[in-house]
Specification:
seven-stranded parallel beta sheet, about 260 residues, Rossmann fold
């Protein structure tokens, strides 16, 4: 009798459509690049036209199927209209985010509201809009919220940021429970400190960088390339039985 080996899962996204926010730079652009190279038709969303068009052009030059839509995701009506007009989207990556760090004793209400508006409110309702489109179309999907290791632990000067990421974790788990019967998976991707243009100021401080590297068990900070494989895993059928969970890409920071 011949042994039948299991089929390898696919890491391809041919024929699927993806929506990525915060897609003009950093983690969002890295995720969009990974999805596009795997065959997805990707819609890039970010606020600024110039960087967004630059990202679109770079991906198109590789032969990617890519479009760009300048939107402020805190405008819930505008993002809902985008999803209604151009969806349904098989994959969502909520990568847009905002951080305003300060000691908890010094937190300003304006900073609190701004960070929650982007990291929780906008992410919540965009995820809902994409899920509504999938349910209406009778399609499964993979919805990915870019959280943080700070969605699992706390950090000095990060009470507001960590609060938003903990909220994102709870939202993701609850949505995964509700939408599982529709074949819609919802997960978070939780990076450690990643080198991007926005984090260069942090890494420019030698003491701060040394502290960060001491917390990361692999001894180095993250790169954008470190995010791409995990994002692709969550987006594809390779993670077909993964939902309601957090994929930590933290080099072991939270292992303690």
């Amino acid at each position: 009798m011949t042994l039948t080996l299991p089929a390898s899962p696919s890491f391809r996204l041919d024929g699927r459509r993806a929506l990525v926010t915060g897609a003009s730079s950093g983690i969002g652009l890295a995720c969009a690049t990974a999805l596009a190279r795997a065959g997805a038709a990707v819609t890039l969303v970010a606020r600024r036209d110039g960087p967004l068009e630059e990202a679109r052009a770079a991906l198109a030059a590789e032969g990617a199927q890519v479009t760009a839509r300048a939107r402020d995701i805190t405008d819930l009506d505008a993002t809902a209209a985008l999803v209604a007009d151009e969806g349904p989207f098989d994959v969502l990556v909520n990568a847009a985010g905002l951080a305003r760090h300060s000691p908890a004793l010094d937190t300003q209400t304006g900073d609190y509201d701004a960070v929650f508006d982007v990291n929780v409110r906008a992410a919540y309702f965009l995820t809902r809009s994409v899920a509504q489109g999938l349910v209406a179309a009778g399609k499964p999907g993979s919805l990915i919220n870019v959280s943080s290791q700070m969605g699992v632990v706390g950090g000095i000067d990060r009470a507001v940021y960590a609060a938003t990421k903990h909220a994102l974790e709870g939202m993701t788990k609850s949505m995964a429970i509700e939408w599982g019967p529709h074949g819609i998976r919802v997960n978070t991707l939780c990076p450690t400190f990643i080198r991007t243009p926005l984090t260069e100021a942090t890494f420019a401080n030698p003491d701060r960088r040394a502290w960060i590297e001491s917390k990361i068990k692999l001894g180095r900070v993250g790169t954008l390339e470190d995010i791409m494989g995990p994002c692709l895993f969550l987006a594809t059928d390779a993670s077909a039985l993964v939902t309601g969970t957090a994929l930590l890409v933290d080099g072991g920071w939270t292992a303690d």
